[in-house]
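From the shared-data thread, chain only:
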Amino acid sequence: MHAVDDVVTCGDLADPGRLAALAEAGLGPRPDPDMEWYAERVRRWLDVPVALVSLVRPDEQVFPGAAGLAEPYRSTRRTPLSHSFCQHVVLTGTPLVVEDSRDHPLVRDNLAVRDLAVVAYAGMPLTDAAGNVLGSLCAIDVRPRRWRSTELDALADLAAGCATELRLRLARRDADEERARRDALEASLRDSVERSVTVAREMQLALLTTLPAVPGLEFATRYAPADAEQYVGGDWFDVLPLVGAAEDSTGDQETVVVVSVGDIVGHELDAAITMGQVRSMLRQAAWDRAAGPPSAIVAAFERANAGIGLDAAGTTVVARLRRRPDGQWAMSWVNAGHPPPLVVTPDGRAELLEGHGRLFGLPRGLIGPRRDQELVLPAGSLLFLHSDGLVEGRGTDADERTETLRARLADLGAIAPDAVVDTVMAELPRSSGDDVVAMALRLG
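Structure, as tokens:
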């Protein structure tokens, strides 16, 4: 390995088979929605400021997936190898874990330490089907960090998924050569495909909740699938009145409702089937623990999820709403890795209900225990819940879109929930290949 004008070159990085795979993958210094998804999940799950999908070329590294990257690198999506830790993952074909780069003999002189403030680093190899290491999925911290085994396991699992996506892209390129022969079969398969689409749509519609009538509550929901043709996906919404679950101080029945939104990891039919099971199990857990906190509902579901071998993974917000005798609403909720709900009070204030714990279906040691949160809301308040497809997507900043959503809800807070969800879905068009769920509840 040698350096010329701060550009590091290496013969191993120029292996023809590896370079051919990089070219066929079609990824470069431009944001790619799937690679962005993996980078963002690493940033969230490991709680790091920066996460990258880095593909290493003979003279530079490019970032088709990046979360938290500072300018100018956020725009250029590339650096020379003088600023690359990931090259060492490619050269060795093994993970690289660094607690403090300033003391590490392999990388302490790397310019990324000075220019990008890379202090702690954990990178996992991304390989193609032939074993070529194309790059790495990495987590970066600007402070020294002792990486926990659960964090490294989660990073390795995400890297395996990212590598699978790369292999699928390469396989699709090979499959293009077979397209001419498949075209000859298209006419005979068309009727079968159309029947499959019809069944998928009917299944999704059957899985979506039929909203109940709840005295004192007005609500509206919308669902937009990632695949407009098949109309199936893993996002859900639910409203479950717990009739007879609680009494007020006079012995009268209280209005108690459990509301949830969630997102199953995965897409299309498999995710939709899993979603239906998860939602039903959450309903059962909510009914059995009607007087308990939402965290107990999620914990009971997770025990069943693992016990029966469903092993579903995803995010959810579960909220318990109780109308008090004074007309106000007591709300308790738990957030399992999901975008935060928003509340608009009658005086027009709109705020995010921040704070979330680990996703469901992941190792318990990855993030600390989930905590219930509580809030008292005056009658007339608007509660808005949604899935991440509403605010995340290609070429967008999730924080900026969330702030746009918050400001728009403040303007819309006084109108009917149907109009709220219709306006939001129209004014925040999807830019991702993900499902979208939106739910608005007026607490009357």
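The CA atoms of residues 90 and 133 lie 5 Å apart.
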